[in-house]
Hints:
37% of the residues lie in helices and 16% in strands. By secondary structure, it is α/β, with parallel strands linked by helices.
Amino acid sequence: MAISDENKQLEKLDRGYIWHPFTQMKEWLDEKPIIISEGRDCFIRDIYGKWYLDGVSSLWVNILGHRKKEIDEAINRQLERIAHSTLLGLSNVPAIRLAERLVQTVQKSLTSPPHPPLGKGGLRGGIDSGSRTPNSKLTKVFYSDNGSTAVEVALKMAFQYWRHKGIDGRNAFVSLENAYHGDTIGAVSVGGIDIFHEAFRPLLFKTYKAPSPHCYRCELGKKYPGCKFACLDKMAKLLKTHSKKIAALIIEPLIQAAGGMITSPPGYLKGVRELCTRYDILMIADEVATGFGRTGRMFACEHEDVVPDIMCLSKGITGGYMPLAATIATDDIYNAFLGQFKDLKTFFHGHSYTGNPLACAAALACLDLFEKEEVLKSLKKKTEILESWLGEIRDLQHVGDVRNAGMMAGVELVRNKKTKKPYDWSEKMGWRVAYHAREKGVFIRPLGNVIVIMPPLSIREENLERLLNVVRSSIVAVTKKTIRANIA
Ligand code: PMP
């Protein structure tokens, strides 16, 4: 196909001026960039007119498809009033409406009674209710712009909470191996993916690392369910030993997404909540990736009747339209920040675009559509299709493990199925599969050797099947090629 002058110019300008995130720019400069100019439903179109199925929801954000009429209209309506005004010292109409709506939505989802202990006697005996009232409701919305800032806000809130309570020394956080909570320095400090985070180690603050609930590659060398949650036992010891130094524990509920779509076994999340309550440690649920239906429920915590003390939301909050995040805290936390002006208990945090009216209008329209289109109900059949496909491809020679939480799925490729020996990271196996799928009109982005499947929730069944067929044939084609290359 002849390339128009305008398209040639766009390619040149991209190479000349954009530094792409999480991208080795030397490689990027050698490749032909895919430049997107349009989207519709679950498809995106490049400047040359080729359509791709958006297999990763434009980086896990798109929920209801591109160019969704109702969201387009909501943004346009808001645009006729005002695009932006600050929440520092002012309020705005969509931010108020959305805050109420988010609290209602979270409470409806997490209508959990106090958490009963796991099994007969709980993890290790009963629960001591600490100095806080556990499981008070999430009622206060603090806006920011993206998942990382939602996490920064949560960490700073948790840290200051204890100070305002008059309790010193709670300066550390607990996070999990394989965790990913964003790219700002605070969020990286609670991250646990060496390849992304290790380079910044000298800049990071202290965190205690609990084991990842990664049953396929258990770092404790155990097997589920025979392990009886040995990872939680280890976490319990850590919390018991250091509880007086810990402000909060942060966790991606149900699935460690960027760590490789690592799903935790049933009961694990509830166990974590129980431990936080027992040792009087705030629990931060980072639902940035899992929120808004991705796991089959509105929020992942709902699956295990868990109510965190702080919840971080972003990505799907606007249906994938605009940058927006919300950190939602309990009354207990909010109340600790109340005082006289001179007390300096104010939460000194806020971004220029905090509570942006256009983004809040998009989010309200998205929540309306969740109800109107019964999005959660529609996921049952699609999740069945996805799970049945995962069950089939599990048998492929180079598929080591398949994992999913609702419509978030990962397929881990291995060099040797029996020994679980991974492909070397530098072989870029995941990427090779992704490039192959791209040729066939499906856009996916892997995490190392893990192929990620996370289409918009609104994807029609026939498109989901097409996506899965292309991914399967790409895995087969690429892994076969490497078998041949290994023999040769
Ligand atoms: N938390 C989780 C669980 C995430 O998956 C991500 C992004 N993938 C983030 C936080 C950071 O979000 P953002 O990229 O919007 O800063």
